[in-house]
Amino acid sequence: MSPSFPSEVPHASYFIYSPRGGSEIARESRRLRDALKLARPDILPKVADRVNRVHASGDFEGFFGEGVVLIPAPGHAPTVRGGDRPVERIARALQAKGLAAAVHPILHRETVVRKSAFAGRGERPSVQTHVDSMMVEVPEDFDLFPPPRIVIVDDFVTKGRTLYAAATVVSRAFPNSDLRGFALVRTMGFIDDIPRIVEPVVGVLRRDASGAVRREP
Questions:
Q1: pLDDT score for 1
Q2: pTM value?
Q3: Is 98's pLDDT higher than 60?
Q4: pLDDT score recorded for residue 145
């Protein structure tokens, strides 16, 4: 019998981004995308502070706080141990605001997968492909074992396959932990334009016949 997949994974995000909109707001969202992809040090503390304010208001309840361990999601290529990846810098910026107890980069990509951004329709890696390419590597000095709550952190979420697959792999390593996903930005690929950039939301990721999909209110 193959290992099980979570029935659903709660997820939250803060910004929205339009990949093709022509308005000034859409263009601004793409400039923000570029800055976050680089995890620019001049904006990360400001972004983390914004997320902290939403958390303080109760809208991100259950995602951050005491005892939470943040695990950065892997990129599309094999992970370089000890590297300074943008997603890890995002997670550490959130931790610096008191949103988590620790950041543990223990989820690694072992084999390369195709970048979803450059894949055509129907060519994006499947959830199973993502799962097969990832592994959890727990160091001997891991000081929060097992973590009571884990949040997988990523910069962007589109259909949610990477985030859902990452949560699947981590859930198999820590089956008794409360597991969630958080992405700073969700892609609004089917909308020509967006009315705003800031739109905090909480939803779930579910696996269906076409792969994991985001579901939001």
A1: 33
A2: 0.92
A3: yes
A4: 66
Read off the amino acid at residue 191.
I
Of 52, 51, 56, 32, the C-alpha closest to 42 is 32
Question: Of 14, 15, 11, 54, which is closest to residue 194 (Cα–Cα)?
Answer: 15
Domains for the chain: give ranges and CATH numbers: 9-215 (3.40.50)
Cα–Cα distance for residue pair 89/160, rounded to 1 Å: 21
67: left (phi over 0), alpha (psi -120 to 50) or beta: left
Spatial CB neighbours of 110, under 8 Å, sequence gap ≥ 6:
78, 79, 133, 134, 135
Q: Rounded to whole angstroms, how far apart are CA atoms 153 and 182? A: 5
State the pLDDT confidence band at 139, using cuts at 50, 70 and 90: confident
